Amino acid sequence: MGHRLYERERREEQAMALDWMLETIAEEQIELLIVAGDIFDLANPPNYAREQYYDFLGRLRATGCNQVVIVGGNHDSPTMLDAPSGLFKHFDIHVVGAATDKREDQLVEIKDQDGRQIGWVAAVPFLRDRDLRYSIAGQTPGQREKKLQAGITEHYREIADLVKHKSKEDQLRITTGHLYARGAESSARQDNIYIGSRENIQAEQFPELFHYVALGHIHRPQRVGSQERIRYSGSIIPLDFSETADQKSVVILDWQDEKLDAEIVEVPVFRRLKSIIGNLEEVEEKLSKFLAKRAIAEGPDALAPWLEIRISTDKPIPGLAERLQDLIDSRPAEILAIRLERTGSQGMGNQQEVLPELDELDPEAVFKKLISGGSGELPADGPELLDSFRELRDWHQQQKMEMQ
Which of 292, 284, 361, 285 is nearest to 317 (CA)? Predict the structure, then answer.
């Protein structure tokens, strides 16, 4: 919640997605909802996003869902999430914004409609460096990475030991995580994976004790390591134009007779994000076809699609924005960005190449470009420089969150 795209608020489609979620929970008679982090897009979300969050939790009670488990993600402020947790517990809403020294704080009983204990959730949030204590002065980037991976694995081992001690053999056991598991596929622009590494834990390193591992952080829904029991549910709406091909979904678990079945339920598209790519003639043709097809296929209640136009050209195109807007005319669609991609050496004259917005730029991609001199080939010390950059970036993000 609170996500913006090219500085446009996404309040409407987020509200529609939450309404759909409530309807699905009621129809499917869901008893337990688990959210694996990144409730908000920012550590200090706008007021409307906070209102949507609290409104959703309030309306959830009417669906028949009697328990909620929410863990913090790397985008969330642990302090903000944890603030109302004492109140929430009276309504069986369990929030774990950050890990504490007491592992028991991350354990939540699963109860049936009659209040009988039927299992446990090990609610593991995004683990920060202070939770893992992996960084020691004088370590090389490679040594820090190994320490990080060992710290994550040890955290799950300790949690699994506690659950094993508390649970009975025939009870359901679930854990959460907000991290990058080796083998997961992210969208082209989601490169803000984790502290120092894109390979934090392997699928087989999650303890076998758990019947299901509910993961957050990667936007694309998928299983990990070919294991059905380890899944990313993904984001409920596409967060940028690189995710338009991803079918968003939620996972419904059914625990019967000591057997767990998983069903994937697709989330409707509430606002279409569309990239139109090619030379000018191709873009004009594709845009006209898209608008005509949408007018036939989609109903009047659908939100106007947002478009990203990417044109291959080796020369200036005077009046480009007006020319494309004339094609849209009065039809409900909005062009959020027009990007020119050079195909030749001819200068662009007085026309300035349209650059991406700041919020579209990935800091790591910019850093790679700087240290490679624009060639795309990293220098010999490139991997170590990248590790140091990632560590500094994540430290800065954590400092910002702690100041909220």
Answer: 284
Distance, CA of 165 to CA of 402 (rounded, Å): 34
Structure tokens that stand for 42 in this block: 């920012």
Q: Which helix (H) or strand (E) holds 53?
A: helix 47-60
Structural Rg of the chain based on CA atoms: 23
Distance (Å, whole) CA 308 – CA 242: 10
Burial environment of residue 349 by CB neighbours within 10 A (0 to 12, 13 to 18, 19 or more): exposed
What are the backbone angles phi and psi of residue 332, rounded to the nearest 5°? -75, 95
Q: How far apart are the first and last CA of the chain?
A: 17
Contacts of 251 by beta carbon, 8 Å cutoff, 6+ apart: 214, 221, 231, 233, 262, 263, 264, 265
**Residue in this structure with the two tokens 């992210």, named with its chain if needed:** 186
The number of beta carbons lying within 10 Å of the beta carbon of residue 344 is 9
Query: Are the C-beta atoms of residues 214 and 32 closer than 8 Å to each other?
Result: no
Report d(CA 184, CA 203) in Å as an integer.
10
The string of DSSP letters for 57-90 reads HHHHGGGT--EEEEE--TTS-HHHHHTTHHHHGG
Reading the chain (404 residues) residue by residue, the pLDDT tens digits are 999 998 899 999 999 999 999 999 999 999 999 999 999 998 889 999 999 999 999 999 999 999 999 999 988 999 999 999 999 999 999 999 999 889 999 999 999 888 899 999 999 999 987 777 655 656 666 677 778 888 899 999 999 999 999 999 999 999 999 999 987 887 655 544 444 345 578 888 999 999 999 999 999 999 998 889 999 999 999 999 999 889 999 999 999 988 999 999 999 999 999 999 999 999 999 999 998 887 655 555 679 999 999 999 988 888 999 999 999 987 888 999 998 887 754 444 434 445 555 555 667 777 877 877 765 566 767 666 776 777 677 667 666 655 55
| CA distance linking residue 161 with residue 157, whole number of Å | 6
Spatial separation of the C-alpha atoms in residues 39 and 71, rounded to whole Å: 8
DSSP 8-state class, residue 216: E
Tokens 């982090």 -> residue: 37
Per the CB < 8 A criterion, the answer to whether 312 and 279 are in contact is yes
